[in-house]
Specification:
Number of helices: 10
Pfam family, one: TauE
Protein name: Probable membrane transporter protein
Order of helices and strands: EEHHHHHEEHHHHH
Number of domains: 1
Keywords: Cell membrane, Membrane, Transmembrane, Transmembrane helix
Strand content: 5-15%
Subcellular location: Cell membrane; Membrane
Low-confidence stretches: none
Shape: globular
Strand order of the largest sheet: 1-2
Oligomer: single chain
Main location: membrane
């Protein structure tokens, strides 16, 4: 059964979209990360224009993050002060990113930039995640002591220090501001929540306790993704509500099954599996960039 997507300007099978949302929801529940960095490439693979895929997925991130952050609030695993500092940087970065998005769209280069961004970011994150998972697996199998995740560096000598009681940190606010800004730009250009970059940065650069990281990350992501969705809809008109609804319905169901399976698998194995999956998506996007298109020529109508 086909459904017409008014903003994407194409018809797709309803069950394909529901299934795609279910698969990404399953993976999100399985690996404990948002599926935006996988959803957007998959939407591109099935023919959705990259600008629409990016903007619509940002809308999906809001819904999935709200349910997650409420659960973490109840457990006391959200550092609101740190999340607010990250949010200030994230709002500035996402606003700037949407402006860059519009500029690239106007000059006809946004599709290329989106694909290149995914190839570079997913390739880098996938390799690092896989390598870290393998190292953790080796340490566990050999019963080696875990290495220290966080060490003091030059960034801790920066001014404007603040005390973050929930995370037990005393550090410069410039570092989380900068991290939030970078993640905000990624959210605007790639249509992701940025958790797959933000979470490692909060652990390794900020030195936050792992138990606080996920909830604080989701707290920031909600508002940054909402800002991206609003600005994309107002400035670029690229948010397809019909597409977002189909993906959301499938994702809610898939996440339930993924979370059940994820609780039964060791963390090291999950990291390796996710890393390999991310690398595979990056390689597929790279192939799409360098392969010869089916239609060598396209006809456009000038304004």
């Amino acid at each position: 059964m086909q459904i017409y997507l008014p903003i994407a300007e194409l018809s797709l099978d309803v069950f394909l979209l529901l299934g795609l949302g279910g698969v990404i929801g399953f993976l999100s529940g399985l690996f404990g990360v948002g599926g935006g960095f996988l959803m957007t490439p998959l939407l591109i693979f099935i023919g959705v224009p990259p600008p629409v895929a990016v903007a619509t997925q940002a809308n999906n991130v809001v819904a999935s993050s709200i349910s997650g952050v409420l659960a973490h609030f109840r457990r006391g695993n959200v550092d609101v002060k740190m999340g607010t500092v990250l949010l200030v940087g994230g709002l500035a970065g996402s606003t700037s990113g949407v402006s860059v998005f519009k500029l690239l769209s106007d000059i006809g280069q946004i599709d290329l930039v989106i694909n290149l961004s995914y190839v570079f970011v997913l390739g880098t994150v996938g390799v690092l995640m896989t390598w870290e998972g393998i190292r953790a697996f080796r340490r566990t199998s050999r019963k080696m002591p875990a290495r220290k995740l966080h060490q003091h560096n030059w960034a801790h000598g920066l001014p404007f220090k603040m005390r973050f009681h929930r995370s037990r940190l005393y550090m410069s606010a410039l570092l989380p501001l900068g991290i939030g800004f970078g993640v905000g730009v990624l959210s605007a250009i790639m249509g992701v929540g940025g958790g797959f970059v933000l979470v490692p940065a909060m652990i390794y650069l900020l030195g936050m306790p792992t138990s606080i990281v996920i909830g604080t990350s989701l707290f920031q992501i909600i508002f940054v993704a909402a800002n991206v969705t609003f600005l994309q809809a107002m400035q670029n008109q690229t948010v397809d509500i019909v597409l977002a609804l189909m993906l959301l319905l499938g994702g809610v169901v898939g996440a339930q099954y993924g979370s059940r399976l994820g609780s039964r698998l060791p963390g090291e194995a999950l990291r390796i599996l996710l890393g390999v999956l991310v690398i595979g998506v990056a390689l597929r996007l790279l192939y799409e960039l360098v392969s010869v298109p089916v239609d060598i020529y396209s006809i456009g109508i000038g304004a």
